[in-house]
Specification:
heterodimer; A: mainly beta; six-stranded mixed beta sheet; 12 strands; globular; B: mainly beta; seven-stranded mixed beta sheet
């Protein structure tokens, strides 16, 4: 069975500082990894994904994530946080190798960026 | 591209009535759609996987007779909450699977309140 862990319920950063939202996963085969962001009372918006290739993936709104196979991690990062980045962030994984389209989500991490 | 809509965005109904939520992929064909439920400050819980032209696959613990799913075309899936009760009040989100490595595109969600 595949699983995702987001160890921090909330991350607080000051505007302009770098941010990291952590994610670790467990899956059979090669993982397909995703980050989504959710604003209040809205659906999820896709940020970025890792399928194969470079371990550093760049996505929307200046976010990036680094795939680390040995640590089974896919942490989300941004060099300089904005107040508008405050939202709920979800990491998700699906197994590769024809494992189907089902995603398993982490519990979510609330990012609070203070001016 | 890859836009998914949901209708209605918000609905209030009385106990015992049924409510239908529509999920549409606006600019692509989705052979697979997913229905999620999200409680406040929690992650998404997969309810069922819907494949066009076939019966939905429900996750363990989800009552298929209560949550009726129909995926009659490649662009439309519906979720009907039958005989709704206050405990069914929740945020329901659908997604449609794209063709690119199982990436899912999410609708904006429907907030259901049962009084």
């Amino acid at each position: 069975a595949q699983s995702v862990a987001q160890p921090e319920d909330q991350v607080n950063v000051a505007e302009g500082n770098p941010l990291t939202v952590k994610c670790t996963y467990s899956v059979s085969g090669n993982p397909y990894l995703f980050w989504y962001v959710q604003y209040p009372n809205r659906g999820l918006q896709f940020l970025l994904k890792y399928i194969t290739g470079d371990n550093l993936v760049k996505g929307s709104y200046g976010f990036e994530a680094e795939f680390n196979k040995s640590q089974t991690s896919f942490h989300l990062k941004k060099p300089s946080a904005l107040v508008s980045d405050s939202a709920l962030y979800f990491c998700a994984v699906r197994g590769g190798n024809n494992a189907g389209n089902m995603l398993t989500f982490g519990g979510g991490t609330r990012l609070m960026v203070k001016p | 591209g890859a836009v998914v809509s949901q209708h209605p965005s918000r609905v209030i109904c009385k106990s015992g009535t049924s409510v239908k939520i529509e999920c549409r992929s606006l600019d692509f064909q989705a052979t697979t759609m997913f229905w999620y439920r999200q409680f406040p400050k929690q992650s998404l819980m997969l309810m069922a996987t819907s494949n066009e032209g076939s019966k939905a696959t429900y996750e363990q613990g989800v009552e298929k007779d209560k949550f009726l799913i129909n995926h009659a075309s490649l662009t439309l899936s519906t979720l009907t909450v039958t005989s709704a009760h206050p405990e069914d009040s929740s945020f329901y989100i659908c997604s449609a699977a794209g063709t690119s490595y199982g990436e899912q595109y999410f609708g904006p969600g429907t907030r259901l309140t049962v009084t």
